[in-house]
Amino acid sequence: MNLLRKITSSKFFNLELFSFILFIIVHIALFNFNVAEWGDSYRILRASEFIRDGSYPLDEKRPPLFSILLSIRPFSMEAVVWGRVVMFVFSFLSFLLFYKLVEIYIKKEKYRFLTLLLFLFNPVYLYWSIRIMADVPFSFFVLLFFYLNSKWPKKDYLKIFLLGIVCGLSILTRFEGYLLLGAGIVEVIFQREDLFKNKIKIKNILSVFLKNFGNMIPLVLATLLVIGPWLVYRNPLRSKYFDEAEKRVYDLKMIWTYFTSLIYILGFTSGISFVILKFKIAKDFLLKNIGLTAFILLELVLILFWPAAIPRLFAPLIPFFIIVTTKCLEFYMEECNTEPKRDYRVLLANIFFVLFYLLSQYFLKLQFLVLGYRMLAAVFLIQVTSLILLFLRKNNVYFVSIVFSSIFWSIYTINMHRYVFKTVKEASQYASDNLVGTIAYNDISAIPDWYLNISDSKCDNSGVHMLFEDNVNLKYSKLKDKKIDYLILSNEHNPDVSVGLEKRKYLQPIKEFSYNVNETVFFAKIIRFNQDYKE
């Protein structure tokens, strides 16, 4: 610790610069860590290939901006590699904007550095920053909006117009951009100087709205100019996203999952206790940033009604959760330095949240909150150690412990999902490179479609999706009528899939890819269909 203190106190050492160097090292190390991308990633890449050919897939529900950026790739670069390059750029720019916001809201260097590290190693944000998904690019536009908003406390029409452009770009990245537009409207109408100088009460809200209504016009106009062509092409009210929400089951378990994911989103269990104990600090911050508060509330409501994407949908909120938590933590620590008595409230609160975490994971088994008894035991020991350090007022060592908790949490999360869709990708690549003919597959991740139908293929083949679990589709006559030559049978989406291959002599396995995760074997079998088979 003495050596560390000497290094960090040197006039040649800059904590913020060190955090950026660390960011680059971490992201370069993780650049090709994942064997395959998520299924949705390949649909986004598929849309980018359509754009390169001058069209957009009619069955693609996502807005086009991210795919447009992915389509601008060098011809010599493979699409997945280019996608990861684009993600690195967006992640770095998001980190830079976060740093600029931290400079505005947190004044002491020690706490700024802590905030940057908690953001860099946040388990959810870091994980999605190395996946080809639109959540981090969308988060970039959210950070850009609120950074510009913070730099422009008094906004003229030109500045509001520029904020509208950012809103439009966010809408073209993810549909939650409409929520950012709604929050922007709240911000430009109920500006902070009006809310606090005039001490607005409920009865004054209407008069303030009428007074500042004109501020909304350049914001909405700029947004419409950006998204107008897309609205003409695709009606957002007919999006397939609305159909997904209707299929969700809303019960106590879902509510429990929602709040557990929210409470422990930072990668350590003690953060929520400081927000509760120093709620006045959090409340003052949110009231002074009324547009940000509106965005957070709108996002939280959306996530509650769209729980299938938990915790990924929290990504654009995580930077602000970290800032609020650190502000509350800073206030608590500085207060403790002048208060000789120990605060037993924080001890009791932390004990409760550690136990609630263990209880929740025992029943819910959420993948992003660490699984397995050994890993949970390790997390428990880290949190208890942090709690002891906090109680003993070893503040600097406590900061190290919560950063270490985030790092451990992140490593587990990233490593656990490293091989997701590994077998499907390997089988699809093998089929694309070595097989000729029509290849049926039961996987729904869009990975076989990408390698067999979209990306460059060395052989003359094509893929078609079929549900093998339906015995009708595996009948000899059905396969022959569809002129199927090979099948790729995968259990990535259904580990219990069984089609009775041993009873179907006309189906001959020729190659298998498999791996074991938490004692579950995932496989992808390549099967040749013998069209000349006779009973």
Describe the model.
By secondary structure, the chain is α/β, with parallel strands linked by helices. Helices cover 61% and strands 7% of the residues. A 5-stranded mixed beta sheet has the order 2-1-3-5-4. Helix 9 (157-171) packs antiparallel against helix 10 (177-189) and helix 10 runs antiparallel to helix 18 (290-305). The longest helix is centred in the first third of the chain and has 27 residues, at 79-105. The mean pLDDT is 89.
**Strand arrangement in the largest pleated sheet:** 2-1-3-5-4
Beta-strand residue percentage: 5-15%
Number of strands: 5
| Poorly predicted parts | none
Average pLDDT reading = 89
The chain-level structural class is: alpha/beta
- The rounded distance between the terminal residues' Cα atoms is 77 Å
SSE sequence, one letter per element: HHHHHHHHHHHHHHHHHHHHHHHEHEHEEE
Task: Classify the helix fraction into a percent range.
Answer: 55-70%
In DSSP terms (H or I, runs of 4 or more residues), the helix count works out at 25
List the helices and strands and how they pair.
Elements: H1 2-9, H2 15-29, H3 39-52, H4 65-71, H5 79-105, H6 109-120, H7 123-129, H8 135-151, H9 157-171, H10 177-189, H11 192-197, H12 205-212, H13 216-233, H14 241-246, H15 252-263, H16 271-277, H17 279-288, H18 290-305, H19 318-338, H20 344-364, H21 373-391, H22 395-416, H23 422-434, E1 437-441, H24 447-454, E2 461-465, H25 476-481, E3 486-490, E4 507-517, E5 520-529
Parallel strand pairs: 1-2, 1-3
Antiparallel strand pairs: 3-5, 4-5
Helix pairs in contact: 2-5, 2-6, 3-4, 5-6, 5-8, 6-19, 7-22, 8-9, 9-10, 9-13, 10-13, 10-18, 16-17, 16-19, 16-20, 17-19, 20-21, 21-22, 23-24
